[in-house]
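Protein in question kept underneath.
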Amino acid sequence: MAYPTISAPYGLKPVNLIGGQVFAGSTRLMEIASGYATNIFYGDLVKRVATGTIEKDTGTTTATPNGIFLGVSFTNASTGQVQQQQFYPASQAIATGTKIFAVVADDPDTLFQVAVVSGTTVITGVGISAIGNNATLVQNAGSTTTGNSQVAILDSTGTSSSLPIRIIDVVRDTATAADNFPEVIVKINATMHQYNNSTGV
């Protein structure tokens, strides 16, 4: 059976840990400031800020994330009901005395599957020579219909130590040609992950 065509980016999806360790779904709850005015989608990168809360990391050639956003929980100010959903809606009003908590995959050893684009959302691919290289993030807007991110990586890879993403492997089942892979396995570069870099927030 043929592998489904990759028609659009979908953010960073955790698959396992470095060294083949299983990703058991371990996550951490992190607070989003009430009224934070930016959508955060499933698969977006997030970072800790000076207030102790998290925000979407919008970096491309540089980024300092502490993980990947996998959902949110908050008490809706209008209904008084707890909502658990795929994405955080910008400027969300919450019930007085409550908090907004994001679910974040924050282990620095987590590996993610991600789509490769030539720019914005146009799917392309890389060859196996890209393995071991670093990559630029492409920060497309996510979908409020599905709740999914559309972050991807650029097909032009390099060795610059400032680039935030390291390509660990290609997803061979997605090959569209002998040496063209529209999906790859990546990790956040060690010196870029907030848990590993020596600079505080």
